[in-house]
Amino acid sequence: MSKRIEVRAAMSGVFYRTPSPEEPPYVEVGTEVKKKQVLGLLETMKVFQKVRSPVDGKVAEILVENETPLKDGDVIFIIETE
Amino acid sequence: MGRIFSKILVANRGEIALRIIRACKEMGIQSVAVYSEADEHSMHVKQSDERVCIGPAISAKSYLNIESIMQAARDTGADAVHPGYGYLAEKKAFAVACLESGIVFIGPKPENLALAGDKIAAKTRMQDAGVPVTPSSPGGVPTIEDARAFAEKIGYPVMVKASGGGGGRGIKVCHNVAELEEEFPMARMEGRTAFGNDEVYVEKFLTNPRHIEFQILADKYGNVIHLGERECTIQRRYQKLIEESPSPALTPELRNTMGRVAIEAARAVDYENAGTVEFLLDSDMNFYFMEINSRIQVEHPVTELVTGVDLVKEQIRLAAGGTLDYSFDDLNRRGWAIECRINAEDPEKNFMPSPGMIQEYHCPGGYGVRLDTHLYQGYELPIYYDSLIAKLIAFDLTREGAIDIMRRALAEYRIEPLKTTIPLYCQVMDDKDFREGNFDTGYIERFLPQEDGDEDDDF
Quick check: B30 and B368 in contact, CB under 8 A? Predict the structure, then answer.
């Protein structure tokens, strides 16, 4: 039975879908991901943190656009597990 | 002396913008604050006489937006601009834009700023002027084969450095050929993406040196003086954490020699206004020119406290045509000043950033305490800018006295519920090697949890 897992911002920061402006996004809707795989970046006060998947599964939803400022706890991704 | 300015636009934010506005108030000069949408509630905006919103939060569209800032200067009728540090402070295009608008740029000449963006050229000029420099490739190193050849000639360990870098960025240390082969293309790529310039050079890496810098002032008439040194050795990843003046490592003779060389370095580039000449000091007390910083520096307060010279006011006065009719030996120098840079980061969690709102704020005071900060109770730290939130400086007649005051002041300072680097500094103030003045650039490692992984850390 599948579950929907929320991936939330660990703190306030600016969310990026890509490793750098010229590169493609880390993931798209439908991408299969492994636990700890990098889904995006969160930049807070010039420091970048990796946003990682907590589970194996598939990216069901991406709720936040590239370069969007987030608050602590905002939901970024929904990952569907088997 | 020329007419002093009637209105200065401060092209910066945070604690340094507040610093400059305070100097303006003391000099009877009107101040204009510029701010991004994220800085609407910032202290520098509250304290200035006028304020102009120059764009959205992202720095590129606000604090780095030359056109927007120039428009604000024209609209408010500012006759001078102070760029602070970082942002546009060392951008030649900004100084030129001011010049072309008939607005005085409070800082060095555009040619001096151009040198800041070209480290290879700066070193060559210094060498030609007889200033000792760290052994390095004579120019840019285009290929890995050239890099290997120079590294063998200079001797490992070496650094591959981006010519357009600065502030400790764009540096790769290589202990052997294998590391050089790996880091060389990375350094070029980083140079291209971060600084728009993939030229790199190879330089001797001094193992755990001390970082000693000299404050320089120069007027428009060829007078150049130094105001003594700052010891900035205690760093993490090339970011300074603690600075002090004077340096526990210098004898009066070495101070005079290095000071004289710093003045020669400034003369060699026809420097104007305030600047800093950075040196590395090895364990044999040999010193080598590293770079010139063409701006007021973060750590300027420690020089101010031991010399009695307000550097920001001197910048303003000299930019308005004032003369330097004193030298280092004329100064009433006394005592010792130590500064701790307080960042909104958790030192126990690999310096993970700590954003949020300040709910309980109590700042230290009392004898020998200076605090340069824009913080206040209820302030929400913006996420878009760097994590430096305060500079706490302690001053006393002796170094031991300054350390005791710093320890006391750190313990008093409350910035809750945020995590800051205050606990790390408390440990340093208690440390025997620090108290004895016995440290090099690797010093801070002993207080940090073991770091592994790459720059983009997980916490």
Answer: no
pLDDT string in tens for chain B (459-residue length): 446 999 999 999 999 999 999 999 999 999 999 999 999 999 999 999 999 999 999 999 999 999 999 999 999 999 999 999 999 999 999 999 999 999 999 999 999 998 866 878 888 889 888 899 988 888 888 999 999 999 998 888 899 988 877 667 778 999 999 999 999 988 888 888 777 888 999 999 888 889 999 999 999 999 999 999 999 999 998 899 999 999 999 999 999 999 999 999 999 999 999 999 999 998 889 899 988 999 999 999 999 999 999 999 999 999 999 999 999 999 999 999 999 999 999 999 999 999 999 999 999 999 999 999 999 999 999 999 999 999 999 999 999 999 999 999 999 999 999 999 999 999 999 999 999 999 998 999 999 987 554 444 566
CATH topology of domain B210-447: D-amino Acid Aminotransferase; Chain A, domain 1 (3.30.470)
* B64/A contact by beta carbon, under 8 A: no
In three-state secondary structure terms, B147 is helix
B353 with A41: Cβ contact below 8 A: no
**Cβ pair B139, B176 in contact under 8 A:** no
CA distance B355 to A72: 9
Query: Which of A12, A13, A45 faces B386 most closely, judged by CB atoms?
Result: A45
Query: CB of B109 within 8 A of CB of B270?
Result: yes
Give the CATH fold of the B7-106 domain. Rossmann fold (3.40.50)
ipTM of the shown complex: 0.89
CATH code for position A13: 2.40.50.100
Question: In degrees rounded to 5, what are phi and psi of residue B434?
Answer: -65, -45
Q: For residue A48, what is the nearest residue in chain B, using CA coordinates?
A: B456
Topology, domain B135-204: Dna Ligase; domain 1 (3.30.1490)
Which of A45, A52, A69 has the CB atom closest to B353's CB atom? A45
Count of domains observed in chain A: 1
B57 at interface of A, judged by CB pairs closer than 8 A:
yes
Report the alpha-carbon distance of residue B141 to residue B42 in Å, rounded.
44
What ranges do the domains of chain B cover?
7-106, 135-204, 210-447
